[in-house]
Amino acid sequence: MKTRTKSPEELKETVRKKYSEISEQAKDYNARSCCGAGGDSTKVYNIMTDDYSELEGYNSDADLGLGCGLPTQFARIKKGDYVIDLGSGAGNDCFVARHETGAEGKVLGIDFTESMITKARENADKLGFNNVEFRFGDIEEMPVSENVADVVVSNCVLNLVPDKPKVFAEIFRVLKPGGHFSISDIVLEGELPDALREDAEMYAGCVAGAIQKKTYLDHIKEAGFENITIQKEKPIDIPEDILSQYLNETEIAEFNSGGTGIYSITVFAQKAGDGEQKKVTMLGTDGAGYCEPGSGCC
């Protein structure tokens, strides 16, 4: 029987609930499943084959085994930069980014799951970082002033958002002129079977929310970005023991031979302009005062 397609609000609530659960799950479980959601696989699921542990700034407590790339590795972060991480989870990418910005920089993580924000703040406290902040908020409506960030990063998150063009418009808004992003995400070439595309649990597992690669890149261009570059691309295979929860044997065979490609891509794009240093608004409100990067007032 064909399932009812979830509304954007219902999908977001499914993601919020699932990622609250994921925040309490062990890393090895998340690595065996579909971005931590969906069914547990009997073999390691290769959606997270990229290993963070060799990157400077890596913190094992903040690594939940999620993601589909290493955007911070490609993000061209410099000392003193202001970096925003979308869907920051327990803070893994933020702490890697903080190593690159140094104490004189500023890193802001945004997540709409309160338990993830709590875990990320605890991790930052353990590390003693006073220039890494975590804000509760929706990346479709970021609690951030415009033209403040040098770099935006995100790892396997935009595919979870129903309104992707709005997110790219928000990224464009918060970046300084001359700023750029590096984002890892899941995209498609070919159509997913209805059972995968319509299942809310599989949506929370990153795959069902993915859109066509060309459409994804078109959204970036339409938001006003230039110098759009795919920095890395790799195929994603869904193990049959996960597929079997959604498809019968015939449908699995058709899916595997049907030419549908699921890929992880890491994309770079830039906002036009030379850039200008701007004071950072703290706590997302104009009345909250300002904080120079590295001043320790976070």
Automatic annotation (TrEMBL):
<dbReference type="InterPro" id="IPR026669">
    <property type="entry name" value="Arsenite_MeTrfase-like"/>
</dbReference>
<keyword id="KW-0808">Transferase</keyword>
<dbReference type="Pfam" id="PF13847">
    <property type="entry name" value="Methyltransf_31"/>
</dbReference>
<dbReference type="InterPro" id="IPR025714">
    <property type="entry name" value="Methyltranfer_dom"/>
</dbReference>
<protein>
    <recommendedName>
        <fullName>Arsenite methyltransferase</fullName>
        <ecNumber>2.1.1.137</ecNumber>
    </recommendedName>
</protein>
<comment type="similarity">
    <text>Belongs to the methyltransferase superfamily. Arsenite methyltransferase family.</text>
</comment>
<feature type="domain" description="Methyltransferase">
    <location>
        <begin position="77"/>
        <end position="224"/>
    </location>
</feature>
<dbReference type="GO" id="GO:0032259">
    <property type="term" value="P:methylation"/>
</dbReference>
<keyword id="KW-0949">S-adenosyl-L-methionine</keyword>
<dbReference type="GO" id="GO:0008168">
    <property type="term" value="F:methyltransferase activity"/>
</dbReference>
<dbReference type="InterPro" id="IPR029063">
    <property type="entry name" value="SAM-dependent_MTases_sf"/>
</dbReference>
<keyword id="KW-0489">Methyltransferase</keyword>
